[in-house]
Write a structure and sequence with these properties.
The protein is of the alpha+beta class. It contains six helices and four strands, in the order ββααββαααα. The protein has helices spanning 21-33, 41-72, 98-123, 131-150, 158-171, 174-187; strands spanning 4-10, 13-18, 77-82, 87-91. A hairpin with a 2-residue loop joins strand 1 and strand 2. Helix 3 (98-123) runs antiparallel to helix 5. It is globular, with a radius of gyration of 18 Å.
Length: 188
Amino acid sequence: MQVDLRIGNLFGIPLFLDSSWFVILLWITYINRQDYQEWGLFLAFGAGLVIAVLMFCSVLLHELAHSLVAISQGMKVNSIRLFLFGRITGIEREYRTPGEAFQVAIAGPLVSLLLFFLLGLTSLFFSTSSLVGELINRVAEINLILAIFNLIPGLPLDGGQVLKAAIWKITGSRFVGVRWAAKSGQVL
């Protein structure tokens, strides 16, 4: 049985952590520490943990962007549940227009791209051989990967939602948009 841990509220939206996140946190910490072994065991694990936590923060900001755009369109977001790539759950109504669907879908990847660019600019102030410079670069890369991955045009990814909105706009049928985006997701 899967148990989610409630960790608080953001903008009135309950925030839950999937129980698998702790395993993922340890795994990401371990994987990333391998890249920093030349700094010694303590700093390598510390760097891995910082990267894992900042990745969590990046996913949270990505999902929060979706939620805030949905709220701005009059939708109620019942919760955000985070696992490795995050997800919003419990939007109370369907999108009324393809424009609404597009705006909510694209918000997360745009925030991830914005974080990539801001972190990339910030990294210019640090030596790439410094610990801080390395960490900033790694988190910037993670945000770029998060944005690109989420823009793959197949459901349930954000890119699939964008494709659904585009097909809906072109054909006038939400169901045709869903069908195309679902088939694209199956192919990918």
